[in-house]
Amino acid sequence: FQQESALKELSERVTQGLAEAGRDREDIRTELLRALEAARFGNSSCEQCPASWLPFRGSCYLFSIPPASWVEAQRSCASAGAHLVIVNDLDEQDFVSRNVRGRGYWLGLRAVRRAEKIQGYQWIDGVPLSFSHWNQGEPNDAQGREDCVMMLRTGMWNDARCEDKERDSWICEKSCSSSWICPPPLIFFFSYQPPCPSQPGPVPALGDLHSSLTATAHTRTYLAFTGSKIRAPRPVI
């Protein structure tokens, strides 16, 4: 009986540890992406965004996890002072598509329909569609019911039924607040756990930063920007 109790306790501790590690990994991923975007655009996107939001060219973006209908997604964005994402050009398309995580996401784009026929598409702010990134064969308005637009896991666009809430998550976008203050040009991430805790392992190269997100968090390492490149000072234990 004591052995079973000990195994149960160990199992619960492992489960809790894995859950905490998963949350830490998402926090690390968010901070790292913020830093990389700031470096890429000369620190022009360094404005503070709310927790879990990613910065890009003066806007903040939230990539949701649970699915919802298009209307529900827009309502959720509005409650956060935002709107469904508006993709203006290829740079913004690249940023958004880099952050999709194996699922579809609603965009702030809908069809303009007159006399049961689609006349075009416009963004949620009323601006007609100019830049687009449609998947091959799209939009096809299957069964005459696909009025909303979503981004596939590949980053390509697809028209879909607005009421579909079993499949698609959503992306919110809002402008950075002028009251937010740009932080110092320092960021941190958690490096690999070294074989011996007293001997920190090497800091991953820039190309390995993405893979390090899945490693066990152990050593807090500060990174400083040098122009558009990133250098890593001595690890702080």
Automatic annotation (TrEMBL):
GO terms assigned for molecular function: carbohydrate binding
Alphabetized SMART domains for the sequence: CLECT
InterPro entries found in the cross-reference section: C-type_lectin-like, C-type_lectin-like/link_sf, C-type_lectin/snaclec_domain, CD209-like_CTLD, CTDL_fold
Domain named C-type lectin: residues: 56-165
Superkingdom of this protein's organism: Eukaryota
PROSITE patterns xrefs: C_TYPE_LECTIN_2
Keywords: Lectin
Protein's name according to its UniProt entry: C-type lectin domain-containing protein
Organism of origin: Equus asinus asinus
